[in-house]
Amino acid sequence: MIDASKLTEEFGSLVFSDKVMKQRLPKNIYKAVHKTIEMGSHLELDVANCVAAVMKEWAIENGATHFTHWFQPMTGLTAEKHDSFISPTDDGSVIMEFSGKELVKGEPDASSFPSGGLRATFEARGYTAWDPSSPAFIKDGSLYIPTAFCSYGGEALDKKTPLLRSMEALSREAVKMLHLLGYEDVKRVNTTIGSEQEYFLIDKDFYKKRKDLLFTGRTLIGAPATKGQEMEDHYFGVIKPKVSAYMHDLDEELWKLGIPAKTKHNEVAPSQHELAPVFETANIAVDHNQLTMEVMKKVADKHNYACLLHEKPFEGINGSGKHNNWSVCTDTGVNLLDPGKNPGENIPFLVFLVSVIAAVDDYAPILRLSVASAGNDHRLGANEAPPAIVSIFLGNELSEVLKGVEEGCTYQSQGKVQMAMGAQVLPHFTKDNTDRNRTSPFAFTGNKFEFRMPGSAVSVANANIVLNTAVAEELTRLYDKLAGYSKEELNTKLFEILKEEIVKHKRVLFNGNGYTDEWVEEAAKRGLPNLKSLPDAMPYWISDESVELFTKHNIFTKEEIQSRYDILLENYSKSIHIESLTMQEMVRKDLTEGLVAYQKDVTNEIIQKKSVISGAECLLENNIVKVLDESGSLMFKALDKLAADTKIAESMTQALETASFYQKTILSDMDELRKYADKAEALIPDKYLGYPTYGQMLFSLR
Ligand code: ADP
Ligand code: MG
Predict the structure, then answer these.
(1) Where are the beta strands (DSSP E) in 336-483?
(2) 185-194 per-position pLDDT tens digit
(3) Is pLDDT above 90 for 429?
(4) Is the pTM of this model over 0.90?
(5) Alpha-carbon torsion (44, 49, 52, 57), positive or negative
(6) Quick check: CB of 277 below 6 Å from ligand 1?
(7) Does residue 557's CB lie within 6 angstroms of at least one atom of ligand 1?
(8) N or C: which end of the chain has fewer CB within 10 A?
(9) How far is ligand 2, taken at its centre, from the CA of residue 446, in Å?
């Protein structure tokens, strides 16, 4: 355990951080690396050689024997291949080696990673390239080097490359705009992200006994426990001692890796928790979120838990999301989404705010798609998570500010209001200018936007790629409208244009309750898309509008867009296919075994009873057997239908059509089967089941 007084030293102790570089690298080399990190300038090989040598020395001192290029292929997971530092010498001994070339470039065989048709199977070459802006670290005896991954032809095969491209695009357009507005000292603008991660913990032994959790990450059958989340007694509740020990251990492991884990608490559903880090630059935050998910699972295993990151592990209670807090900050330290004291007169703030609003309105379907997965489709629109309709919550004050711009009068801030708690002894403080809205998919929260649609299991890279690019595009559009005006005219023109934008895009603003049916109706009237499932939304990804957006800003080539389309669809269909097979097997084998065993015991009981009490009616026992028989038959009918439809799905070849079939037919077959399976399960005593029940899994944590 980390001694609390040593925490500041222990934080990042396994990271080849800026501090370590400053201490160990020659001054000129340190400067060159810094220039690369800050300005994205090219790194010379002699610099890389020197960094590699120092990195190796540091890594060995910290117990590493291997190094690995660590990357994020389009599976949404991370990938690594480890090489040791050893190099044999003539005399039969070894020396430890690590060159600049090895640091900068790797050549993993790319043929077994999804490429969505970007290369044929025989074209196996792929490259990983060092991302010096995300620090290397040590984990399990290896030096991890964050890298980007591309094909022999230079197409991005990962999530990091387009993310870095989108950050650069946003920076470029933001700087251009800021220079126009007179802020010429700004050289770069950074996207910052803080992603709050939700997760479930269950007993590891339970986890191992459930094929559905093992193979698909979510339960496919399971009668609800007699208690759910209706008592609202878990959210922010006292953290149980064993769970608390887990969280503590998790924090420490994350801190050593330089991940600024900050907040932890119980979530709404039983056994559900959340961890939030302090925000960081986008690519580092994404790397750190991937690592966080990995470490969460690893530490859980040590504590005899399984950590479930699926978006919907359990029916009937809340699923898990990953709130993506997003802002833009200049290299001069200004958060461009900070309204300041007088938002109505804060021009950079208004320009960026309006650009975000326009981006979310114009590119809502693509933003919706950036968080689409088979798992997340169970959350969105299910009245526990934001609806699939993308809208923005601004709160009262900012709504007034925009109304002011629209009506041509400047909004004057009311200043902060004193909080009245009605007891003298309580401290006096001012309240925030806006309340919270937990039902909005895209909410302004003081000095950042919180995008609440991302699911808990997936990388947040996609969401930020789309967000950054869409905002970059809106900034370009605004810039083009403003460029060419003299300094004197600029201010008037700017407010005219902002007004136009507000009028055009205010349909996407909504401060009310996003979980209601009225909102669904209202949104339809406003013409806002409501793309409930991934297959519904997919065509937008390859639409002209999308291709134009991404190619214009050099985020994706047309081929890269198509490859991501193919992968996403294929992944969706495959996920549901595995779910269907797993469900069939669990029902056919595990549940049926319990059902039959119980019926057999009860039937034997009837025979026994009749032999003792002649003419015994055995009403209770007969009834049990009858009901079990009935629900068993219905269950098997539904099972047969699922099996037959799954065969049809397996024979389909067209990707979008197949995905739609999985969504419309297979998922509803599964729902139907689940109805009977859960009914049957509820009838039989727990001891007949070869797998743990909802009640056991959700309410057994100590
Ligand atoms: P909240 O109560 O709104 O959830 P927090 O301050 O706890 O507020 O922030 C939630 C998350 O938002 C944290 O991960 C935090 O680091 C992050 N965050 C705060 N400011 C920013 C910012 N400027 N850019 C990106 N993320 C931010
Ligand atoms: Mg939050």
Answers:
(1) 392-393, 417-418, 430-431, 442-444, 449-451
(2) 999 999 999 9
(3) no
(4) yes
(5) negative
(6) yes
(7) no
(8) N
(9) 11
